[in-house]
């Protein structure tokens, strides 16, 4: 009796660990579009009663439910890639001018990825863990919409956000 209990407890613990490793962190991010300023941006702050842009126009909003953990994992792969490119760029001593402007572009990209990550944590209200595994392991379960020329993974959420508002216009 006690033996089977031990086994089931162990199985229970394993099941819990497995669930923890696979558990999504569901949340919502919002795309905001101001038709007057033609600006598009995202926020983690959901405002069910709408909000006004700095120009005084009511902004158009699209709330997108997503797995914050998947977004975070994917963005973490992007950061690794950017850091790799920055490092590689540092090593190439030729084409100094080109390498300088590429550096700046990569730093800007890095900044935007880091900003996205901090928004994801804010949206979750806690620190999110990444999904365990390599990109190859996770490729199929992550919401990768596109891989751009630099090798950045673009998630469904971040892919062509302006199209979300074109769709709304037709309605
Ligand atoms: Zn505006």
Which stretches are poorly predicted, pLDDT < 50 over at least 5 residues? none
By DSSP (H or I, 4+ residues per run), the number of helices equals 5
Give the strand line-up of the largest sheet. 2-1-3
Oligomer: single chain
State the shape: flat
Tell me the major beta sheet.
3 strands, antiparallel
Mean pLDDT: 90
Domain count = 1
Distance between the termini: 64 Å
In what range is the share of β-strand residues?
Answer: 15-25%
Bound molecules: zinc ion
- How many strand elements? 5
What gyration radius follows from the Cα positions, in whole Å? 21 Å
Helix content: 40-55%
Alpha-beta classification: alpha+beta
SSE arrangement, N to C: HEEEHHHEEH
Short summary:
This protein is an alpha+beta fold and 171 residues long. 51% of the residues lie in helices and 17% in strands.
């Amino acid at each position: 009796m006690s033996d089977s209990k031990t086994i089931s407890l162990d199985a229970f613990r394993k099941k819990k660990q497995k669930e923890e490793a696979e558990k999504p962190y569901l949340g919502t991010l919002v795309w905001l579009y101001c038709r007057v300023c033609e600006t598009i941006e995202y926020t983690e702050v959901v405002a069910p009663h709408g909000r006004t842009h700095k120009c005084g126009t009511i902004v158009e909003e699209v709330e997108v439910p997503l797995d914050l953990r998947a977004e975070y994992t994917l963005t973490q792969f992007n950061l690794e890639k950017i850091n790799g490119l920055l490092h590689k760029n540092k090593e190439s001593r030729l084409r100094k001018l080109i390498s300088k402007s590429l550096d700046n572009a990569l730093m800007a990209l890095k900044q935007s990825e880091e900003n996205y990550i901090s928004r994801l944590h804010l949206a979750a209200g806690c620190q999110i863990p990444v999904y365990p595994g390599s990109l190859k392991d996770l490729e199929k379960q992550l919401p990768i919409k596109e891989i751009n020329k630099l090798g950045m993974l673009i998630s469904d959420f971040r892919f062509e956000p302006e199209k979300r508002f074109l769709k709304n216009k037709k309605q």
